[in-house]
Amino acid sequence: xxxxxxxxxxxxxxxxxxxxxxxxxxxxxxxxxxxxxxxxxxxxxxxxxxxxxxxxxxxxxxxxxxxxxxxxxxxxxxxxxxxxxxxxxxxxxxxxxxxxxxxxxxxxxxxxxxxxxxxxxxxxxxxxxxxxxxxxxxxxxxxxxxxxxxxxxxxxxxxxxxxxxxxxxxxxxxxxxxxxxxxxxxxxxxxxxxxxxxxxxxxxxxxxxxxxxxxxxxxxxxxxxxxxxxxxxxxxxxxxxxxxxxxxxxxx
Length: 252
What we know:
By secondary structure, this protein is an alpha/beta fold. It has one domain: Rossmann fold (3-Layer(aba) Sandwich), CATH 3.40.50.1580. Helix content is about 25%, strand content about 30%. The chain is built from 5 helices and 11 strands. It has helices at about 65-70, 130-135, 160-165, 180-185, 210-235; strands spanning about 1-5, 20-25, 30-40, 40-50, 75-85, 95-100, 100-105, 140-145, 145-150, 170-175, 190-200. Strands 1, 2, 3, 4, 5, 6, 7, 8, 9, 10 and 11 form an 11-stranded mixed beta sheet that branches. A hairpin with a 2-residue loop joins strand 3 and strand 4 (about 40-50).
């Protein structure tokens, strides 16, 4: 089964499905409402990351419950979407970027499922390269780039953006971590489409507003949905991937 974790710009995906069934899925970390969709005769499980009405702020998202809810309904590969600011002039507003690495500047988030025993999951390639190759063939995207995840909910300062750039960051957002590593801990293939909504603080000449983010995402909504639909068309249920064996050799 294919999982979609979407923020703004993806909520309309349920309207184009041939059928929609909503399930309240229980996990050890809480209950999550999952929409089970029939798209192109494939079963797709969709979770709106910020819940209905975009009501949950990024630092309050129950990432562990979301990933486990998808696993519990049978998801083996996840396509996520994230709205981001750009620190790289070659990744302008309006572009779609598939990252290949991340820097984690979040605080006080539950970042692992393994609280009671020692497990060291490899993240040399934190995002699934198999999914990246499929996604790159499905539309106009930029492949590669380092995603910097901040705690939020505030935007970053110009000095922070300068630091992130010096460390090699290209994109900045608030929701990509620990989602990506939790998926790895559950041996689920995971990759993300980052929608660049604006240039980051200090690069943009204007003050940042959430309206600016929503306006760009709205403008790109149709293109984003078509990209996701094309990815769904090209994903196969019968596959093997190193992500599926992420716990091999990881447990002490």
